[in-house]
Specification:
The chain is an alpha/beta fold. The protein is built from 11 helices and 11 strands.
């Protein structure tokens, strides 16, 4: 039997948390005797009724077996990585607090990852976009953002830009162990960091079939829809701010220069901008 841990980091998530969790509990994989699925929730210092909802879920649902709560706010990346470091499982699925999972999300991901446990493997997928009420407004975030399959061919692309949507990310234990043995560069969020490690030392699977409804509302972390030149200027300004970190990343990794990192970052960003306008 394969143990699966679904990791949710919450922060003032009272509005959509129940719908998200119920979409997880409705997964067809729960009816598969080959899987032992548990849902883990860590609250990142909520001040609304999120903790009360978590307590209700824990008391009602036997598959929600553990809750990590904290008065401190680590932020999404460090909150997820903390959970990853302390929870033992064979496979890990990362989950936002406000989306809706399609019923075959877990089983489909496991069909890609299940038989290659010795290699670090990361799986992620396209997403459908929905409005705050859960109504679909776009069938493909990749199309909205100008993604093409060739973007996912090289580990240097994962190192240079953030290609993976963490709310669709799943990894195996070998990926977890590899990531825990490397120090994360703080220029990268957890999803980019994990996908880069897996792309360089193992396998990254990019599934063109959407696995979730990604909810668009005022407080989500990652926005969907059209990308603008302003978006890329903002990203460039952030990169310049952390340029010393970027140089350190390249120096320590050794297989990529700063000039190559910049070239890849500019090339992929411009391609995405152009292709998103031509969709």
């Amino acid at each position: 039997m394969k143990n699966i841990a679904i990791l949710i980091s919450t922060y003032n998530g009272e509005r959509y948390l129940l719908e998200q969790v119920y979409s997880i509990l409705a997964q067809d994989a729960f009816r598969d005797n080959n899987f032992n699925i548990k849902v883990y929730i860590r609250d990142d210092g909520s001040s609304d009724s999120t903790l009360m909802l978590i307590d209700v879920l824990k008391n009602q649902e036997p598959n929600i077996i553990f809750s990590l709560t904290s008065d401190s706010n680590l932020g999404p990346a460090d909150s997820f990585l903390h959970m990853l470091s302390v929870i033992e499982s064979d496979y890990y699925f990362f989950c936002d607090q406000d989306d809706i999972w399609l019923k075959d999300k877990v089983s489909r991901a496991m069909s890609f990852m299940g038989e290659r446990s010795e290699l670090p493997i990361a799986y992620f997928s396209d997403l459908k976009l929905c409005d705050k009420d859960g109504e679909v407004i776009s069938n493909s975030l990749w199309n909205e953002w100008g993604y093409r399959q060739k973007f996912f061919d090289s580990w240097k692309n994962y190192f240079s830009v953030s290609l993976v949507t963490g709310c669709t990310l799943a990894i195996n234990r070998a990926a977890r162990e590899k990531c825990m043995s490397h120090e994360r560069y703080h220029l990268m969020l957890h999803d980019q960091w994990i996908s880069y490690i897996c792309a360089k030392f193992g396998i990254v699977i990019a599934d063109k079939n959407p696995s979730i409804l990604y909810r668009q509302h005022d407080n989500n972390v990652m926005g969907g829809g059209d990308l603008s030149l302003r978006d890329y200027i903002n990203k460039s300004e952030k990169f310049v701010k952390y340029f010393d970190d970027a140089k350190k990343m390249c120096r320590e990794e050794g297989d990529i220069s700063v000039s190559e990192l910049i070239r890849i970052k500019v090339f992929l960003s411009l391609q995405r901008l152009i292709l998103s306008k031509l969709k």
